Amino acid sequence: MIDFLCIYPMCLDDRRRNTRIELGTDLLSSHTYPALTGNHDSSQILMQSDCVPNSTKMMPEITSSDAESVPVPCIPLKRTFDQMDAAMEEASDFTRRLSPASSIPAPVIRASGLPDIPDFLLLDSVIGADINHRKESILLSPVLAPIAEESSEDSDGEDLNLLIPESTASLAEIEFSNLKSDLLTPHSSPPAPMNPPTMSVPEVGHDRPIIAPSPTPSLPVNSLSPDNHDNNGDTSSVASTSDDSDSVFDDGQSENTSSYTASLLSDVKNYAYENGRRYHSYREGHYVLPNDEPEQDRQDLLHHVRNLVLNGRLFRAPLDNHIQRALDIGTGTGIWAIDFADSFPSAEVTGTDLSPIQPSWVPPNLRFVVDDAESQWLYSPSRPFDFIHARDLGGAIADWPRLMRQSYEHLRPGGWVELQEFEVMLKSDDDSIRLAPALCEFLERLTQASEAFHRPMNIAEGHRQRLVEAGFEDVRDEVYKVPSSVWARDPVQKEIGRYNQCSLLMAVESYSLALFTRVLGWSNNDTQVFLAGVRKDLKNPAVHTYCKLHVVYAFGARPQGACTIYTFCWSPLRHFPGPKLWALSRIPSNLSVLRGYNHLDILALHKKYGPILRLGPNELAFNTAQAFRDIYGTRPGGCFPKNRSNYIAPVNGVDHLLCAVDDATHARQKRLLAHAFSEKALRDQEGLINGYVDTLINKLRSQVRQGTSIVDIKSWMNFTTFDITGDLMFGESFDCLKDSQLHPWIKLIFNSMKALAYIGVVNQFPMLKGLLDLLLPREVKRVGQEHFDLSVQKVDRRLASNMARPDFMSAILQNGLSEEKGRYLESDRIMTRAEIHSNGFILIVAGSETSATLLSGCIFYLCKTPHVMSQLVAEIRSTFKQDTDMTFRAVEELKYMNAVIEETLRIYPPFVTSLSRLVPQGGAVVNGHFLPEDTTVACHHYASYHSESNFAIPDKFMPERWLGPDPVFENDKKDVLQPFSLGPRGCLGKHLANCEIRLILCKLLFHFDVDLRLESTNWADQKVYFLWDKPALMVTLKDRFPDAGVSGS
């Protein structure tokens, strides 16, 4: 016999699932049920046995003396649609049989003596965001009242009483912590009344967060109770009006609580209406986006877009399963917070927002708080968060450094923070955005208006630097390309584009209406007319735009003790060999860098531990050919991304080729710069390069004729390569050869090498950055800015000259130039001025210093190995009768010279250490070992090339190893040698560098005999600070043609 049965119709508007399920006429997300009355013998209210965890199957015993309300728990259960339909049909039939004419919403029906009543299940929501799979599984929740024991045999089954609830308050009024406690704790006596949701009331004159109110806007004073979670001093939740020591009210204040609370609730929900849209009232005017139903729908739709882009993941930070407290800043509709709370049921999750628009029926471990994230946070430092999450805060924050600082201060050591933000500026790789002039103007005006409002929208690209400056560690910026319509060929990207286009069509008004009318002074009508054109552009199928989603996450201060235990016991890298101190901390490896001997230390460690070496808590080094291919080579799904924390950020914040993490940005820049290094460009540039090499020979001959035969050949190599690179890049020489001394800018570059190494180490310890910066000499701090400023001056002069000449700039500019302020014009054919500035800064070093280093090393080892020098000189002088015969193509045919250059690259590589990468999402196999994602991996050039496991007699200069079969070198692993790297990010200037090096070396040894001076015997014993720290290389020159000109005739 059924002793108690509850049936109610419902329309669930479940915002966390992006799906509305219509089951009735009333919008009821939850309900509170009155106490049972009448005859019911100590019945035990049970849950459906297959859908209740073992620990929660038994409900508290309910008797006639129970208090006013009993909560309805919602426990997920998977059912197919067919099963749900059958259950709902039975429920519908039975409801009509009980009360066919009843139109009372959500009735509570007490039935006694009705036999064979089925167990009713109620549809709660569709699982997840993937609507295509909603027919496979749904969430069901049991209705309160399944089976109880028969208590009376003489019940005739005709007694039917209809009870209408006296209160229509929703389940938002139930304190979920009490509910959970009651479900888990047996009761021998009736349970206490359930508390309505607590309402945190600001103390007068102070900023206080407000827990989002229930749909009933005002509550009696005695219903205001403290947060029943253990606050431990957490002042973000206001205590009750009792004499509890945590109360924010004194005795005088407590008498006015009722009126103050009612006023406060009224203020929070007294929304502002403007131009047909609804806006928040708490801290009115701080946020320009509306909070009405259309905007809530847009936010939920964008949540679905993110789910698709991130493959269903709510976050990218590598969280463990022991999250205790999480904070969602700017929670909006609460959809992310609800899903996160479902995923971490043991965590206490808090979502904050200026508007109380979140649903009432939420997981018991989640609460929503009306709060301004820009105000002083009142959360207790004794209860820090394990995870702080925020997304779509563009246009909402005026003081980002303060927000980052407060996040850092309230994050548990070892916790994570994650920011997800779309770039405002849309882009197109095929330049089709030019077909959308209204859209381009809209983006520009939106950016300008938000900046004038002092809450800029376009803030995504700066998140990484903000986190670094706040002291966070391991800052990672993942960039995802999200189509803004259905133009993509890939079916997944096409689906993403379809949803994103719908979101953008809704967003243009949400983002702009308040800004354009308040800041720009436009009328509502003018704005709507303009937005119509913007929407037309967004719908144009010929426009192939996309936006970039930045997911930036970072680590809080590391708990050293916990880190030590984790490193030894649980880290997935714990099985790899290496020194224990290096595995525990990055301090030993960074001290090695500062000492200048990191290349030798890595070599020694490889000799001791083998080809795979653990260099840090999350870092591995390899020295095999397979590892080079795995880490740097082309692979399906994209390259290993660069570890940005190991690269010094450009001064202007715009990525150049060396530090570009985004594959698309790197590929586009490389395509544009590749024109300057093509075979045609090399032929066009050959005359210019030959002219500078001839000048070098003339200047050296002049030195010898004046009786100065002893020269620092290293400096002359630098004079030549910097003059060539300066002319090719900027259209003007540095005049180093002309003046026989380094240009001040070049001196600045050499003086900055140690500073770059120091800055690189400082970036590894952001917590100590402020202290370390104080110790950094003032002249070192300004080196980077001065170097960049000089580069900008050179670039701008070349751009203004409009010269038609065969150099890098003419190749870059062959398709035009985009000014920095118009960065939405970026395409695969146009480079911005800011990008040219940034690349000019790095190409000077990459294109000149490395070539000069290789030439200097080659001359040193030739002089140290006389038989090699003799054989090379014989090859050059027997091949060419005069130096005018030396062309790029001719010198390329010198086999022994090529072997000498290869051996120099091995024994004295211009780039000494490594270019680290991160294992991509999902993990990858490197050198036969599967590694988890985000592991830092690298191959160190010097250590790999000097390893006995790769090369026979590795410390000897022996070009013979590259000339063909030789039993001494038959086991050499020559494919380990990758001085120019490989794969999509291989060195762009490899062919130009080889042509330049061959020509200079060939002409030098054709005209002069070169002998090493005694003071330079140990020249190769150098330290490394980013590049080799080279001393003077003193040699004696003997002119072969003392009475001849440059040609030697």
From TrEMBL:
<dbReference type="GO" id="GO:0020037">
    <property type="term" value="F:heme binding"/>
</dbReference>
<keyword id="KW-0349">Heme</keyword>
<dbReference type="InterPro" id="IPR002401">
    <property type="entry name" value="Cyt_P450_E_grp-I"/>
</dbReference>
<dbReference type="InterPro" id="IPR050121">
    <property type="entry name" value="Cytochrome_P450_monoxygenase"/>
</dbReference>
<feature type="compositionally biased region" description="Acidic residues">
    <location>
        <begin position="243"/>
        <end position="253"/>
    </location>
</feature>
<dbReference type="Pfam" id="PF00067">
    <property type="entry name" value="p450"/>
</dbReference>
<dbReference type="InterPro" id="IPR029063">
    <property type="entry name" value="SAM-dependent_MTases_sf"/>
</dbReference>
<keyword id="KW-0408">Iron</keyword>
<keyword id="KW-0479">Metal-binding</keyword>
<keyword id="KW-0560">Oxidoreductase</keyword>
<dbReference type="GO" id="GO:0005506">
    <property type="term" value="F:iron ion binding"/>
</dbReference>
<feature type="region of interest" description="Disordered">
    <location>
        <begin position="182"/>
        <end position="260"/>
    </location>
</feature>
<dbReference type="InterPro" id="IPR017972">
    <property type="entry name" value="Cyt_P450_CS"/>
</dbReference>
<feature type="binding site" description="axial binding residue">
    <location>
        <position position="987"/>
    </location>
    <ligand>
        <name>heme</name>
    </ligand>
</feature>
<keyword id="KW-0503">Monooxygenase</keyword>
<dbReference type="InterPro" id="IPR001128">
    <property type="entry name" value="Cyt_P450"/>
</dbReference>
<dbReference type="GO" id="GO:0004497">
    <property type="term" value="F:monooxygenase activity"/>
</dbReference>
<protein>
    <submittedName>
        <fullName>Cytochrome P450, E-class, group I</fullName>
    </submittedName>
</protein>
<dbReference type="Pfam" id="PF13489">
    <property type="entry name" value="Methyltransf_23"/>
</dbReference>
<dbReference type="InterPro" id="IPR036396">
    <property type="entry name" value="Cyt_P450_sf"/>
</dbReference>
<comment type="similarity">
    <text>Belongs to the cytochrome P450 family.</text>
</comment>
<dbReference type="GO" id="GO:0016705">
    <property type="term" value="F:oxidoreductase activity, acting on paired donors, with incorporation or reduction of molecular oxygen"/>
</dbReference>
<dbReference type="GO" id="GO:0043386">
    <property type="term" value="P:mycotoxin biosynthetic process"/>
</dbReference>
